[in-house]
Amino acid sequence: MKTKTTPRKVLIIDDEGDLCLLLNILLGGKGMDVEHVQSIAKAEEYLLQEKPSLILLDNRLPDGFGIDFLTFVKKEYPSVKVIMISGVDAAAQDVALENGADAFLRKPFTKAQLNQAVTELLDREEPVTSPS
């Protein structure tokens, strides 16, 4: 029987189409199963059906603030890693981390910053044991 590694699911919650497309390209190229929604309501629907390993969460969404949704995600899905993304609120970083965000990226961020945050969080999720 062959073992096939299933790609890790990543959910992007952001209402900026261009950013979602860019994140999809960057993360999809790393063998991840990337989907995106543009509102908190759609994210709640998604989470009822799927369990992502990682959520990239924008703070300002059409139907609320990501920081508020973050509390819900961490309560209902404690094993899901969350990277909070914000370009507007300087104070959002402290609040996001206090509310349970695993990492914070301030817009605009670089490909290297994104890769570092994603790699660190997903490697922490599934520790790799090296052969002796």
From TrEMBL:
<feature type="domain" description="Response regulatory">
    <location>
        <begin position="9"/>
        <end position="122"/>
    </location>
</feature>
<feature type="modified residue" description="4-aspartylphosphate">
    <location>
        <position position="58"/>
    </location>
</feature>
<dbReference type="InterPro" id="IPR001789">
    <property type="entry name" value="Sig_transdc_resp-reg_receiver"/>
</dbReference>
<keyword id="KW-0597">Phosphoprotein</keyword>
<dbReference type="InterPro" id="IPR011006">
    <property type="entry name" value="CheY-like_superfamily"/>
</dbReference>
<protein>
    <submittedName>
        <fullName>Response regulator</fullName>
    </submittedName>
</protein>
<dbReference type="InterPro" id="IPR050595">
    <property type="entry name" value="Bact_response_regulator"/>
</dbReference>
<dbReference type="GO" id="GO:0000160">
    <property type="term" value="P:phosphorelay signal transduction system"/>
</dbReference>
<dbReference type="Pfam" id="PF00072">
    <property type="entry name" value="Response_reg"/>
</dbReference>
